[in-house]
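Human: If only I could read backbone structure tokens as easily as an amino acid sequence. Underneath my words sits a plain record pairing an amino acid chain with its backbone structure tokens. Take your time, and here it is.
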Amino acid sequence: MISRRALLTAATVSILVVPFGARAADSAGPVATVSAFYDTLLQAMKSGPRLGFSGRRDLLAPAVDKAFDLPLMTRITIGPQWASVSPDEQQKLVRAFSDYSVATYANRFDDYSGEKFNVDPKAAPSAGGDVIVHSKLVQSNGEPIELDYLMHQVSGDGWKIIDVYLSGTISQLAAQRSEFTSVLRQGGAAALIQSLRDKAAQLAS
């Protein structure tokens, strides 16, 4: 997941809020998925110090699971090597990747400082029936940073995020793929599972 500190590093900015008007513009589609996730994220941010890491993690876990297609994101990040991983290890990889993703949000989004996140109320079509939800992180000085979400529709489960792009071009999954595939090649699925678990534990400490 794109973290608050990743945004700070890339653009010297902090966190974001979805305006109510953006939520109302698309009550049943991909924009609503993104907006609902940020509603929960905002709760975690505003109550960050009181909740502590574990409280934020417990609050955010269902929201992350609902907004993101974590199994597909795990497969995309690992790439072709996914086919060589056993079904049991595939399940463990998805769980470890999911826990790491939730821990990242719980660790990074731990307070609120008043910036704005403006979401385009109309999703843009993409290849294969996917869509892109465009948004802008508006800094306190008024300067925007583009943050977009590639989404697809899951039968019976609505629209889910499958990748995040910073400044319209920097793919979160592409940035992670090199590290993940390297660990997998050198130590196998067990090594990658342990690496993700270690990363989640470090974020919790």
User: Anything to note?
Assistant: The chain has seven helices and seven strands.
